[in-house]
Amino acid sequence: MRTGSHARPAGRRLAAVLLAAAVTGASAAASRAADTVVLRVGDQKGGNRSLLEIAGYGKDLPYRIAWSEFPAAAPILEALNAGALDVGYTGDLSFLTVYAAGAPIKAIGGTKSDPRTQAILVRADSPIRSAADLKGKRLAGTRGGWGQFLISATLEKAGIAPSEATFAPLNPVDAKVALMAGSVDAWAVWDPYVSFATLKDRARPVADGAGLTPAITFIVASDDAIATKRAALQDFLTRLSKARLWSLDHLDAYARTTADMTKLPEDVLHAAYTAQRTRPIAIDDAVVKEVQEASDRATRYGILSRPLDVGRAVDRSFTAAASN
Fold first, then answer.
1. How far apart are CA 113 and CA 106, in angstroms?
2. Helix, strand, coil proportions of the chain in percent (round to 5)?
3. Measured between alpha carbons, how far is 275 from 254 in angstroms, rounded to an integer?
4. Which residues of the chain, if any, have pLDDT below 50?
5. Peptide bond into 75 cis (omega under 30)
6. Which of 152, 169, 193, 162 is nearest to 294 (CA)?
7. Measured between alpha carbons, how far is 61 from 75 in angstroms, rounded to an integer?
8. From residue 91, how far is each of 63, 88, 269 by CA, in Å?
9. What does the H/E/C string look like for 175-195?
10. Residue 287 confidence (pLDDT)
């Protein structure tokens, strides 16, 4: 009997120890969860999330990514400005347009594509054969970004005054519909829209961005995230650069897998990726100089609200650290 009477207190003591250990473990796990950095990332369908997953660089993160998918770059910039995102990506001029308006953001990295993959397209049956034929025509493109800039730069190069053509501010989806319906004469856009329109809709390019546009896509972070989540941002940027380099050597696999994810035609994506040859860049003196020249032209065209010092709009420390 005494054996049984001693067993019960011993059992209770063991249970108490196990319970305490469980509580301590749960508290530690909760503490670790609370300490985990969450990086709020803005993306578009078939964008950086897909790239990281396809290339295999989205695993074993030392932080957690909360992905948000947007239909275009403009709402990503709006969310960054509002503090709802930590990082996203957008074209160089769209970024500068929002930065010029006072958004608390900086470009921390980026990629560069072949500028010929930004083009002004016309229908297959259009009488327009060159940039000179754009005089007096109605031209569609995105306001405050690559579309409007390419139209302005192309008209200037052709010696056509801005007043001698009509700019129709339309997003890519609406602009394509307008072009095919004949309500606009030409459409300024970028890949993969260019490849889709030329391969599937028999559209023709009459001008492109060669010598006119930087064709840079910036990785953009909020000032708050730069101050409080630097290590996570640095790791994210490094992984994106590695994934982008992987894609250049695996265009077939990249196009095939992205086509499965986005339901876009594989031949369109393969053509776009092959033409773009998108590669990661460091934000160095050459990049700042090239974007500064485009910024000054955009100010002259009335796309930017005021002159900008591009050097103040970028944070070079991230790509500098990645190269060391």
1. 20
2. 55, 20, 25
3. 14
4. 1-34, 324
5. no
6. 152
7. 26
8. 26, 11, 19
9. HHHHHHHCCCCEEEEECCHHH
10. 96
